[in-house]
Design goal:
A 5-stranded mixed sheet has the order 1-2-8-5-3. It contains 22 helices and 12 strands. It binds protoporphyrin IX containing FE (HEM).
């Protein structure tokens, strides 16, 4: 009997043991490779995280907190999954998120939770992203945003009047109101057609409930992306029964389909008047496959999604902290009253953008809101050299620490990430980081400090930085100013405290405690 026959006979006789042994040998070999032979094997971090993604899954929506703990133990450069190195050193922001010239992809592992890789936001490949983003840049430039200033002002004034109309009666969930405001602004901006959600009683229905429930699904979809296909099979009526909050999103999708059709109809006309984002994309210098209807439709849906809860969360947070800290509100109100003079007019966007305390309040709000709280992963197409320093406590227990230089070359094709939360909470940059203190952004002359801006990660950095940054800033400046001027002496927090706004878990965006009822106010 040959050796092979002997092995086969033995397997046949002990098939159960062999069946178990094969996967065990496989798992042990893979773990051994990842721990000792892998190109990232020299990067410090827990062995379990280097061996398996189950480490991340175990911490689930709180992995971001665990990442902070790992940095406390292992220093500023840590291997947090088999293929990913996380960096927590503000000096390395540009290395992880470089600007033009460097080729950097997004990580399929992160992007797959959204299930729509055909949009600029979720494009993985650097080159395809460059083409898609290039077609949108002009539409979102500062000059383009300035044209919509009158509408943002009108919407902000209307929002304040609607909130004021609840004086002496019901509480207002201000976070819901802001979500309606940002939806009205982005739909006017994209389609020259506001959805008028501000006008609805209690600002409902709007997109927030659907967004919230979809957000909670994202961690599951990240690990089980095939569920996207399963979800697409679910008939719409059933989906609505399971999740009534999705009704508003279904209407958004219907509208986006219609917007694509309307833009095609305009394209066929000889005078070629165009004014929506779909017209812009149809006229852009893009290859025909990039102008497919299904892609244009998705691009519009994603733009609406990207623009609503992000900005409204910042507006909610600003309102919370201003009402929570009357001295901060009073300082800002005084600055705005001086700027508006006797006219009671809301100052122009250019004036607002130059008011130091308002600038500082916006920056401090962005710092506390974190933008996207989940680490944002990039995959570089060239090796990246990371140099940093680790503080090592002295063995004699004295307060002195030794500083050791560390240096790693991350080969091309491996994932690199940073987390806004940990940069924004860095006590060397932002002393007493949990405190809401616009003053930290002002210099001795009371002017806005520019040096700290490079550490504000809210909109990310580099080639994949937020496309809507100009629009977001315009909304923040105008809406915060309107709320402070029109309602600053009328609003009071209702059963809302810091636990309603502080980080509890990560669903890509940050979420406060699950039982929160939102940020609620009463109106005098
Ligand atoms: C305060 C409000 C906002 C914050 C904090 C914010 C934050 C961010 C962040 C962190 C990213 C990078 C995400 C990643 O790397 O995966 C991003 C990308 C993006 N944001 Fe925003 N955003 C805001 C408002 C807006 C608005 C108003 C729009 C308008 C359409 C918008 C559209 C986009 C798009 C299209 C991208 C993808 C950019 C690309 O990959 O080229 N965002 N945003």
């Amino acid at each position: 009997m040959s050796i092979l026959e002997a092995v086969l006979t033995s397997i046949r006789e002990h098939w159960l043991a062999a069946g178990l042994l094969v996967p065990i040998i496989y798992i042990v070999s893979v773990a051994f490779y990842r721990l000792y032979l892998h190109p990232l094997a020299n990067v410090p971090g827990p062995k379990l995280a280097a061996a398996t993604w189950l480490y991340e899954i175990y911490f689930w929506k709180k992995f971001v907190i665990e990442i902070g703990r790992l940095h406390d133990i292992y220093g500023p450069i840590v291997r947090i999954t088999p293929n990913e190195v996380h960096v927590n050193d503000p000096a390395l922001i540009d290395a992880v998120y470089p600007g033009g010239g460097k080729k950097v992809d997004k990580d399929p592992y992160q992007v797959r939770m959204f299930g729509i890789p055909d949009t600029a936001f979720l494009t993985i490949d650097h080159e395809t992203h460059r083409i898609r983003r290039g077609a949108l840049n002009r539409y979102f430039s500062k000059a383009a945003v300035n044209k919509i200033e009158p509408y943002i002002r009108e919407a902000a004034e209307k929002l304040c009047s609607c909130i004021a109309s609840y004086a002496g009666s019901d509480t207002v969930t201000i976070s819901v109101a802001f979500s309606s405001f940002t939806t009205d602004v982005i739909t006017e901006y994209l389609f020259a057609k506001s959805y008028h959600m501000i006008d609805r009683p209690h600002f409902l229905p709007n997109l927030q409930a659907g967004n919230d429930s979809l957000g909670e699904l994202l961690p599951i979809l990240k690990q089980l992306p095939f569920l996207h296909t399963v979800m697409r099979w679910i008939p719409q009526e059933r989906m609505l029964k399971m999740n009534p909050g999705m009704a508003s999103w279904i209407r958004v999708e219907q509208d986006c389909h219609q917007q694509v059709k309307d833009a095609h109809a305009r394209l066929a006309k000889p005078d070629r008047v165009y004014y929506t984002v779909i017209d812009e994309l149809l006229h852009a210098d893009l290859p025909p496959e990039e102008k497919r209807d299904d892609r244009l439709f998705l691009e519009a849906v994603v733009l609406i999604n990207a623009a609503t809860e992000t900005t409204s969360w910042n507006l909610s947070l600003a309102t919370f902290y201003l009402l929570h800290q009357p001295h901060t509100l009073a300082t800002l109100r005084q600055e705005l009253l001086t700027a508006s003079g006797d006219s009671l007019e809301l100052p122009s966007l250019t004036t607002l953008e130059n008011l130091p305390y308002l600038q500082a309040t916006v920056a401090e709000t962005l710092r506390h809101a974190y933008g996207v709280v989940q680490r944002l992963i990039r995959v570089h197409q060239d090796p990246v050299h990371l140099r940093s320093t680790v503080k090592i406590p002295n063995r004699d227990g004295s307060e002195k620490v030794q500083v050791k230089e560390v240096s790693y070359v991350i080969p091309k094709g491996y994932s690199l990430s940073m987390t806004s939360l940990w940069i924004h909470k860095n006590p060397d940059l932002f002393p007493d980081p949990d405190k809401f203190a616009p003053e930290r952004w002002l210099d001795a002359e009371g002017m806005k400090r520019k040096d700290l801006d490079r550490y504000l990660m809210s909109f990310s950095k580099g080639t994949r930085q937020c496309l809507g940054i100009n629009l977001a800033y315009a909304e923040l400046y105008i809406c915060i100013a309107a709320v402070v001027l029109r309602l600053g002496d009328q609003l009071e927090l209702f059963e809302t405290d810091r636990s309603d706004v502080e980080f509890d878990h990560d669903v890509f965006a940050m979420r406060p405690k699950p039982e929160t009822k939102g940020i609620r106010v009463t109106v005098r």
